[in-house]
Write a structure and sequence with these properties.
The chain has 15 helices and 14 strands. By secondary structure, the chain is an alpha+beta fold. The strands form six sheets. A three-stranded antiparallel sheet has the order 7-8-9. A three-stranded antiparallel sheet has the order 12-13-14. The longest helix has 29 residues.
């Protein structure tokens, strides 16, 4: 268990031996740990004493074994109805949505209980894209594990690759060349820009304002094309590796990125004005899907979800990591906590990322791109800011330098439950809008 202490910006990691297959439930005192403990029960067979909800989470009854990463027990696949929590009251009805959705989207089931059009309760059922990541990581060599880490959640491939690489480098006690550190940050900011453009447009589209999605889609496409031209891949996948980076940026690439910044700075303010001055759009986003600041703090919500509800946390600054500790940028924060606030946080983060790319291009140091990693045992952890919040990677290397164990935690683990709270009291038709304003990762959560 990784613990963060705000007063000191310190992070501590606690490991507890469970010889009898049990441990004290953290969720019994701290509800955000609930789904993680249900997952531990599914994967490892460890029982959390005092856990108030023992329903399976990732295990949908189709694996053929129970707790595959612990003491494996053969099981006949048997899909039984999932026991959703009851809701009581007059004139309530349920609306099941998913796991298969219209359009290109990952699977997840949403069970609405509504009174007319008003949502009384939403309960999520996730785990449909469970990939067995922790099992695949165990015993893998560093290069294979790094490629897998970059595929946990495809829209955050750079962030996950940086987090995994930094965890390996911490375990191996190596220092990465300065040029590689700056190139990693440059790729991370391009990834952030592309995703924020996509999200701003998608939120507007779910409010029936497709024009914004079209224009934001153009900007997103320009970022992806520039990334491909500069680093050889639109998503910059496998360009960050433990020990450094696998792609350099030449002068032609620097020129393309400067042209990209100029285009965005000319076009994006017009789109911001369009968003801000369209009353029909504001009518859908303002005061919709409000997440209370107290709840955002309690669940340590990261990214735009937390910052739109008053939680000023950004892993680039707190606890911080190079090169951001030497760069100038602000962490935008709002208190309203509605869909509109989550859009505005994205807008302000676009502006901050443009400034960061400027600084990185102006002060890109010369030098090597990578260092060789020693073959040794060790334990390491890293916290990196992805576009939707903080990504944590913890790993342990065995004496042969292979991955003994690795856990990758997406910010979505603590954002999905908050979506359930934010939709209460809204009308059913506002769910796509609220859901997209959160934009939690299915794949990053389902491991």
């Amino acid at each position: 268990m990784a613990l963060f202490e705000l007063a000191t910006n310190g992070i501590g990691v606690l490991s507890l031996s469970c010889p009898d297959g049990r441990f004290p439930s953290v969720a019994a005192r701290h509800p955000p740990a609930l789904r993680l403990e249900r997952t531990i029960r599914d994967l490892f067979g460890l029982e959390a004493e005092g856990l108030t909800d023992i329903r399976p989470w990732l295990d949908h009854g189709g694996w053929g074994v129970r707790h595959p990463l612990g003491g494996r027990i053969d099981a006949i696949p048997e899909r039984t109805p999932y026991p959703f929590l009851p809701a009581e009251g007059e004139s309530l009805h349920q609306i099941p949505v998913g796991p298969v959705h219209a359009g290109i989207i990952e699977p997840g089931h949403f069970r609405f209980t509504a009174n007319g059009e008003t949502v009384v309760r939403l309960e999520e059922r996730l785990g449909y894209v469970h990939k067995g990541v922790e099992g695949l990581m165990a015993g893998a060599d560093i290069a294979t594990a790094a490629r897998l880490a970059g595929r946990i959640s495809g829209d955050s491939t750079v962030a996950y690759a940086v987090a995994f690489a930094r965890a390996v480098e911490a375990a191996a006690a190596v220092e990465v060349p300065t040029r590689a550190v700056h190139l990693r940050a440059l790729m991370a900011e391009l990834e952030r820009l592309a995703n924020h453009f996509g999200d701003i447009g998608a939120v507007c589209n779910d409010a029936a304002f497709a024009l914004m999605q079209a224009h934001c889609g153009v900007l997103r496409e320009r970022v992806l094309r520039a990334a491909d031209a500069c680093f050889g891949h639109r998503l910059m996948r496998d360009r960050v590796v433990p020990g450094g980076v696998a792609a350099d940026l030449d002068e032609a690439g620097r020129g393309q990125l400067r042209d990209l910044l100029d285009r965005i700075r000319r076009r994006f303010p017009e789109l911001v004005d369009l968003y801000d001055n369209t009353p029909s759009l504001q009518d859908r986003t303002v005061s919709t899907g409000v997440l209370a600041p107290a709840l955002a703090r309690h669940y340590a919500a990261g990214g735009h979800v937390g910052r739109a509800s008053g939680r000023a946390f950004d892993a680039r600054r707190t606890p911080g990591y190079p090169p951001y500790d030497g760069l100038r940028f602000d962490v935008p924060v709002l208190e309203a906590g509605d869909v509109n606030a989550r859009v505005w946080i994205r807008i302000r983060e676009v502006e901050q990322s443009l400034g960061l790319v400027d600084q990185l291009l102006a002060d890109l140091p010369a030098g090597p791109l990578a260092v060789e990693l020693p073959c040794m045992a060790g334990e390491g952890m890293a916290l990196v800011e992805a576009f939707r919040g903080d990504v944590l990677v913890w790993l342990r290397l065995d004496p042969d330098g292979r991955v003994a164990r690795c856990h990758l935690r997406d910010a979505s683990w603590f954002q999905w439950p908050l979506l359930e709270a934010a939709i209460e009291g809204c009308i059913v038709a506002d769910f796509p809008l609220c859901n997209k304003s959160f934009n939690c990762s299915y794949s990053g959560h389902d491991l």
